[in-house]
Amino acid sequence: MQVEQLKNVVVEQLEDLKAKEISVLDVKELSTVTDYMVVASGTSNRHVKSVAHNLVSEMKDQGIQPLGVEGDDVSEWVLVDLGDVVVHIMLAQTRDFYQLEKLWDPNWKDARSQ
């Protein structure tokens, strides 16, 4: 699967799983580790864990083995490493605290604060 296609499948899955505030960050020029970071919010620990679990399951069904999954034990922030696309699924308060979008894209504007 091509990188753009993988990114699009990830976003579609997150939308289907009712993840909130999905952001796609193109980090090709900033990172040698991945091309895209996708950041999404879940409404509760259970929702974050469920979104991550179902995303991993769908990726496996499509023949993509995740390189790793971190944080699903606490489920405040679950990272799903798909190689060229790294997915961060976070509780809203955790996302607000770490501000990954701001870290990786200095031009990023939080639509919620406008």
Helix tally equals: 4
Outline type: globular
What is the averaged pLDDT score?
90
For the record, the count of structural domains works out to 1
The rounded distance between the terminal residues' Cα atoms is 37 Å
pLDDT < 50 stretches: none
CATH class division: Alpha Beta
Helix/strand order: HEEHEEEHH
CATH architectural category: 2-Layer Sandwich
Helix content bin: 25-40%
Proportion of beta-strand residues: 25-35%
Main sheet: strands, sense, barrel: 5 strands, mixed
CATH superfamily: Beta Polymerase, domain 2
Radius of gyration: 13 Å
Q: Numbering strands along the chain, what is their spatial order in the largest sheet?
A: 1-2-5-4-3
Keywords: Cytoplasm, Repressor, Translation regulation
Family: Belongs to the Iojap/RsfS family.
Subunit structure: Interacts with ribosomal protein uL14 (rplN).
InterPro entries: Iojap/RsfS/C7orf30, NT_sf
Give an overview of the whole structure.
The structure is a single chain. The chain is an alpha+beta fold and 114 residues long. The chain has a single domain, classed as Beta Polymerase, domain 2 (2-Layer Sandwich), CATH 3.30.460. 38% of the residues lie in helices and 25% in strands. The chain contains four helices and five strands; from the N terminus they run H-E-E-H-E-E-E-H-H. It has helices spanning 3-16, 45-61, 92-98, 100-104; strands spanning 20-26, 36-42, 68-70, 77-81, 85-91. A five-stranded mixed sheet has the order 1-2-5-4-3. A hairpin with a 3-residue loop joins strand 4 and strand 5. The chain is globular. The protein starts with a helix and ends in a 10-residue tail after the last helix.
